[in-house]
Amino acid sequence: MPELESLPQEVKDQLAGIGTPDVVIGLTSLKSADDLTWAADAGKSGLNVLIAYPGGGDVIEFQPISGVRLLRYPVSAPERYFNAPASIFGSFLEVLQISQRLDSKACCVWNSGPQTSSAGIFAQMTQPVLEQKFDLVVANYIQAKWGALVNSSIICPLTRALYGRRIQFPMAVDLAFSSRMVARLIQSDPGSRLPRAQHWIATEAICGGMQICQAALPMEPPRPPESADLSSILAAVLSRIFSDLDRNASFWQRSAESQFVPIFGEFQIKEQDEVTVDVQQLIETFQLGYRNLTEIWGLALSPATLMELKKLVRVSPAEFRVADDLWVRVVFEFALAHRQRAINREHLLRAMTPLYLAWVASYTLQMQGPSAESFQNRLERLALTYENHKPYLLSRWRWPDRFNP
Amino acid sequence: MWQQVSQALNQSVTRVVTRIALLLPGFIALLVALLVSWLAAWAVGFVLRRFLRSIEFDGKVARWGLPQLRAETGKSPTDVAVRVVCLAIIFIGFLVGMTAFEATLTSQIVSQMFAYFPNLIAALFVLLVGGAAARFFSRSVLIGAVNLNVQYAHLLSVGMKWLILVLTGAMALNHLEIGGKIVDEAFAILFGGIVLTLALAVGLGARDLVSRSLERQADRVTEDVETLRHF
Questions:
Q1: Which of A174, A286, B114, B159 could form a disulfide with A139 if both were Cys (CB 3.0 to 4.6 A apart)?
Q2: Torsion angle of alpha carbons A277, A283, A288, A291, nearest 10°?
């Protein structure tokens, strides 16, 4: 498979005189030397570290530290990557290329803000690769009852049910790779002719038979850009994971029960009480969606699912509950419609926003109050429902024309 | 006298029969041209259908934003494309057959039709693209407005659809050279009317939306309220 080389000649010349670092750290949003105070500690660790940061801004003047070098590289292929800042994908791919060219043992891509980085965190991210031969380390952020709901309601349980790995944050943007994983990611996919790094990294690693672990970090997931609205980010994230389902169909159709993925570090949970959420508005958006988008939903959802949604429109806000099996059917049926191109994909995925908000409203109503069950139990039940409904997705995936009530 | 009447009748019948005899080869040529064009259309349609299926034309059309074609016409995009091509071939055969009459008037009509043909194709293309654009943008507006919880979402979507359809219709009529200035004026009135309606709808409908948005901005500035996070 061809590798995609986008590094300019000047960077290649610079790399020729660097030698072989143990770790390449890509700080994709580094802006000033003030964010590199931790580098002195990294230099004391005894490892040779190369910190790569994307060009575009000013050249960062850096006080030389033994064992730490700084490299600036131009971004050649700016593109949005998940909810990370713009132009991150180009940076991402080039960090991997630098790591491979230098034959480093580990590569860490840090897409969260540089102010959250520290020598300890990078050690936590790269040690499983350097010492325990893992190929991919996925950041496991602090879990919160009212946080990362797209991940909790769709991405995490879907990855678990279909690919058989319990990764808490499959859409984490802070990752560490072995040289084997780097080599795989910079190759182009024969089907899409895009670099594998542009796919969903976690599923790419699972399908490639890589050893995966999680690093529990003392930080919350990075926030999406202020300019992006929920609908567009949700559509972008779903588009990527649904496209992966299509590409990896032969893998996930064969995968069995889900397995635990090792976690390094102390797993943290943020204690949260109540939140200020206008549940009524969430329900109203769903009801408005039902009144106006039924035609579009009808192209994706089965009659039985539409009937359940119709019942939901009529219930009072206090009794508003989206059952787990209904929600799972909605997600699976949208994945199927995405595959069958029943409608323009952008429209399809954006039309899912009111349904997602219905789930959020239901979850909020269930989790509020002192008598509510723990949110981990609640999400575990949802994940099990995803696993139990996998045969439904399988059957409709294999025989899409079969009648579905 | 009866002899003169009989002679006149004979001459009349002879003239009619002669005229018919003169028209008959042209008529037969027309039938043959139609038959040949029908056979050609069938063959081209067969090959085209197989080709479009091999390149998954329906899937590509869906990607371009025209997946509703099947729902609205009851036919797949492949069927529609094959039918359009077949009808065009039969129409060309009909024109070829018409020229076989060799009548000056027929030739003039046919030459004018051929000269008009590019306009017709351009108008059809404009209608096709305009129809697709109307459907695509009206749906985009509908979904976007619903996601923003705008109560007038349907009205905005319909307004957008008719805005594009009216523009498309006026452009198509211009290409067909039908109507002249009336079309321009009617278009200006209709387009202006729809824009005014939409402006009023947005002005009235978005009032709550704007105030909610400003409230959210104010909340963000004044206090760091603990709220739920989607990502």
A1: A174
A2: 170
Convert the pLDDT of each residue in A75-95 to its tens digit.
654 443 443 433 334 457 888
The distance in angstroms from the start CA to the end CA of chain B is 107
Clarify whether residues A317 and A368 are in a common domain: yes
Domain extent, residue A322, equals 279-398
d(CA A189, nearest CA chain B) in Å: 21
Residue A360: its chain B contacts at CB < 8 A?
228, 230
* Domain end point (choices A270, A295, A329): A270
Contact yes or no for A353 and B67 at CB 8 A? no
State phi, psi for B177 to the nearest 5 degrees.
Answer: 55, 40
At residue A385's C-alpha, the angle toward residues A380 and A387, to 5°, is 95
Backbone angles phi, psi at A266, to 5 degrees: -90, 115
pLDDT at residue A18, rounded to an integer = 77
Positions in chain A short of pLDDT 50: 1, 77-90
Output A369-378 pairs: Cβ under 8 A, ≥24 positions apart.
Answer: A375/A145, A376/A143, A376/A269
Which chain A residues contact residue B208 at CB under 8 A? none
- Residue A335 maps to a domain: yes
Residue appearing with tokens 């002192």: A370
A84-139: pLDDT as tens digits: 433 334 457 888 888 888 888 899 988 887 777 788 888 888 899 988 889 999 99
Residues of B within 8 A of A150 (CB-CB) are 230-231
Is A289 found in the same domain as A232? no
- Residue at which a domain ends, from A270, A303, A321: A270
Largest pairwise CA distance in chain A: 69
- Shared domain for A214 and A363, answered yes or no, is no
* A184 found inside a domain: yes
Q: Both tokens of residue B86?
A: 């077949």
Residues A315 and A170 in one domain: no
Q: Flag whether the pTM goes above 0.80.
A: no
pLDDT (tens digit per residue) in A225-255: 666 678 888 888 898 889 888 888 889 898 7
- Same domain assignment for residues A61 and A164: yes
